[in-house]
Write a structure and sequence with these properties.
The protein is an alpha+beta fold. The chain has one domain: PH-domain like (Roll), CATH 2.30.29.140. It is 24% helix and 34% strand. The protein has 3 helices and 7 strands; from the N terminus they run βββββαββαα. Strand 3 and strand 4 form a beta hairpin. The longest helix is centred in the last third of the chain and has 17 residues. The relative contact order is 0.19. This is Stomatal closure-related actin-binding protein PH domain-containing protein. GO terms for molecular function: actin binding. Pfam families: SCAB-PH (PF17684).
Length: 122
């Protein structure tokens, strides 16, 4: 069973921000499912992305100033499809990253971000 986190969409495709949780209808909420074999991003009943762990997938925390960066992660589901997702807290974001990396590792996949891959030489 995957673990899920609720995220908020501010209206920009592929970008979710935590500071808009209030005064928005429930259909604006995105849900990130981190499962043993894949990651899925849903909004309501529609699926934005559903990808199995692969070598082209990237997942990392967003760096920058302020609290928003500490709560955000970058997910490239596959080449040409990427999202910046924000969580309610840095703790939730870190839990999602650690869990996804663990599940990917169990599938013999190393999930990393763009900077990490450059250092690894892949």
């Amino acid at each position: 069973m995957p673990l899920s986190w609720k995220l908020m969409d501010r209206g920009h495709h592929g970008h979710c921000y935590p500071d808009e949780w209030v005064d928005h209808p429930s259909e604006s909420i995105h849900v990130l499912h981190v499962g043993k074999m894949r990651i899925k991003l849903r909004k309501g009943k529609s699926t934005n992305a559903k990808e199995y762990y692969s070598t082209s997938m990237q997942l990392c925390g967003v760096r920058g100033g302020g609290n928003a960066a500490a709560q955000a992660l970058f997910w490239q589901a596959k080449k040409g499809l990427s999202f910046v997702l924000a969580f309610e807290s840095a703790r939730e974001r870190n839990a999602a990253i650690m869990l996804a990396r663990r599940f990917a590792f169990d599938c013999n996949i190393m999930l990393a971000g763009p900077d990490d891959r450059a250092r690894l030489g892949s």
